[in-house]
Amino acid sequence: MTFTPPKIQKRTLKGHLQPVLCLAHSSERLAYYHSKKRTAIQRSDGDSDGVKSAADSDGCTHRHHPSLLLSGSEDGTARLWDLRQRKTAYCMIPPKKGGDVVEVTSVAFHPSLVEEIETKTKDVDRKGGSLLGEGDCTVYVGAAMNIYGYDLRYHATESTTAPASPILKEPHFNLTSFFRSKDEINQLSFSYPKHNDGRGRYSMSAVDDSGEVRVCEDVPFRYTQQSLDGNATKQPKVFYHADPETQALASCAVFKPRVNDLYLASGGTDCMIKLWDVSKPRRPTYSTHIKPQSDNETTTQLCNPPFVHSLAWSPSGRLLASAIGDGSCIIFRGEGRRLVEVGRLGWKEGGHGSAVASVCFPGFGLCEAKGSSLQVTSKSLLNGTVDDRLMITAGNDCNVLVWDLGANMVGNDAVDPALYLSRGGAIERGVDDSLTDIATDLDDMIIDNSSVKKKGKGGKPNDEAENSSDDDLIPSPPKVLFQIPHRHKPNWITCSRASDTLLPCSLFVADTTNDISIYTLQI
């Protein structure tokens, strides 16, 4: 089957005054799996036999789930964007340090809770049109060594006489005393509740430049739970990712989904990836040292050490992808308390020519919004119930690559991305004060990797690789489906998990400019 890249259109969110450093989307935790313990969602053809689905953090279908984007910038602000209304809903300004602007280096949504989603639909739009959905009412901002929380639902209903101000200058609670980070925070991350825990309890991690990862349980997410200057009642668990004498930074840490035990993967500038059992923080259950590629093809890769810039778990929790500074992306399979390397995607595989800045599993294949609920489409179920094959990477070579990891690496029960990444029609465009359509159709710019001859040393086509019979022996190896020229070095990427008629499945890219790029795919 010949793969045809989908039609993609680029839009731009404008509002920040300096480069955007971090992003989070309200649906990024939505992942679907096959389980008899969850509620079936009707397929688009009306047949629900064997199709079980649930939001991976909540165990529910996220009805009335809004499309919200959270961003943090060097300008010292965090913005909540309502993508359906195409405007900024709130602008949060963390407290300044000595009058100086403090960069916002990490942002996160508090995970939705089952009871909130089931009981709070009646509260939506009560105050003349709330932009917030059930559960997505508390956001967290990391600025320098501080972590602040904003209960946006409380802010929206605080005043009964006037509309809530879109600018929040004071946080609703300060979590700095909870985590006690020693240096600038690089990433905030939330855990996934245990399958057998119906209380929806979450742990939150903060990774910083001191080389430490700090984890706190049951952080406050409502204004009434914690006063602004309250002190933590529990000591944080500290995971020493980097040895102090190395002076290495811990750059990223993400919780593993789909497990009853709480596991956390961390990476940093010590070129190490470690897996931790959160209940036993003394030492990692597994660690591996990333070595430079032995067959580097470019001078850029030879000069860049294999720092770990970004980590991402696949929706099922079976795979861990790591963005490496030498331009490669290493894929691990999680096997209990250890990680097993199953592939390294570099220049020879059509990968990046410079450091990989960010990686994510978009999970486009299984979920689609129909009206006020999410549905599993029959198209996505033609070849499995796990959407672990599609991966997106962004590199300092200013390219965004869309990968198919293949059945050999992921397994035969995974959805083939080619089944739903088909070329669609034109995307309806709109312009307002906050979202500017740059009138750029990327259809002619997208590079289909399957039609480009692989180049060997010297830039000449590698005819030997083209005539090789390896593909006959390996029916489904990893490959780049297509690439998107982005023109600027990326800082962060994230995706919207659910598609609807107002906002198709989208990729969000923060880069060295002041704007956020939105690539919409008609799937």
Automatic annotation (TrEMBL):
Top-level taxon of origin: Eukaryota
Keywords: Repeat, WD repeat
Region spans: Disordered: 39-68, 450-477
Residue spans of the WD repeats: 67-91, 263-286
Pfam families: WD40 (PF00400)
Biased composition (Acidic residues): 464-473
Name under which the protein is recorded: WD40 repeat-like protein
Lineage: Eukaryota, Sar, Stramenopiles, Ochrophyta, Bacillariophyta
